[in-house]
Specification:
The protein is of the alpha/beta class. Helices cover 40% and strands 17% of the residues.
Length: 517
Amino acid sequence: MADDTLAWMNELTAEMEERRKRIARGGGEVRIHKQHDAGKMTARERLDTLLDEDSFIEIGAFVEPLHEGFDAPGEGVVTGYGTIDGRTVFVFSQDFTVQGGSLGKMHAQKICRVMDLAVQNGCPIIGLNDSAGARIQEGVDALSGYGEVFYRNAVYSGVVPQLSAILGPCAGGAVYSPALTDFVLMARDTAYMFITGPDVIRSVTKEDVTLAELGGADVHARRSGVAHLVADDDAAVLAMLRTLLAFLPQSAKERPPVRSTRDPDTRETPELARVVHPDQRRPYAMHDVITAIVDDRRFFETQADFARNMITGFAHLGGGAVGIVANNPRHLAGTLTIDASDKAARFIRTCDAFNVPIVTFVDVTGFLPGVAQEHAGIIRHGAKMLFAYAEATVPKLTVITRKSYGGAYLAMNSKDMGADVVLAWPTAAVAVMGAEGAANVVFRREIAAARDPDAVRAAKIAEYRKAFDTPYLAAGRGYVDDVVDPKDTRRMLIRHLRMLADKRVERPYKRHGNMPL
């Protein structure tokens, strides 16, 4: 009897293993070769590359399509959990070799299952997207599946980090799930995102456009701002995902992991004394300021090619993760524009959601003037930055490196907008406007009445600059907490961050704020 039971169990086990092997083969060798020929990994190869070795545990491998007779091993998506640098993450990886990775009802439910588990266990969600879109054969059931995923993207936003890698086509409704997540990464030559494809656009608007021109990685990195990070291929995107995760906590209930470093907290940065030019019209590399100050001179920039007048990204200071927001004097003089405001506001809110302190470097003349900006809603978009900084309760430090004028002074995290500590370099100037503009307004009658208007204008500009283009007036009013030598900036920031480590803020009860979207 025991031998019969063993034989029966062996038979069942063999059947199980055969089914598992069939599912692991996805769409078969021919389609796997096509995937490789297109420069893409398979769904399982991506998971092996992303996760720590032998850490992946699959969930829902035997789920089948809603309709019988439809051949879709594993329902076209591999789901489960594993670890990255020893930290548990939940993942789904769409399998383009199986019905083009199309999403049906059960495909969506597999994704929803790991999303629910991720939130219940306080772990990040990572989606590896490579799908032709909704499964047409399932009609409204496929649309329902997308709705279930979108709903969770929204409800779980700010609960656990949600990261999306676009590693193939992502069209129609499929684009909205990644767009609802915290960060979108794209592979340069193989990833596309668009609502309607080139053929539809050609038939409706008569515009002739290629896949890359319409929704390629570079388009979304430079023009639309949809993509936060771009890399050359699957492997590079997956490596970037691992790096990005190191700056984020497991959930909103935790703090980001501390990174070990041999970079001394007290390291001075004397090279910064030569960065800022006395002529305020002369640009300098704000990136050099940031990298000089942060741990190991490592700055992980996000959306580097979008709204380049604003810099955002992650770094470590004293081992702790920080979000960096900075004006870029080398692009549009660091002025605030619609895109720059949106970019900064989104990043600020992401940092605040996940307990990442924010360090802001300021060198700004104001909002970019112009009819186009005004008509496109610079008031509404600029207000997003004000809202984001005011709403944020994480530690917020501001360093004014050179000028900080007008409404942009407030938008770049002034003391009045909730900054915990504001530092200024001796080169800083805090005022309503620059000396040239101010002198022309304040002394316009004297200049107009003078025999030599140019000489009087120059004298009044110099007079105004001496009186107001200085950090000491603002420091005297308490708007600046300290004027520091640039070489001491790193040390002071680390000390202030540690002082603020246990910061707690109580806010009035409300369902949620009403951000000017």
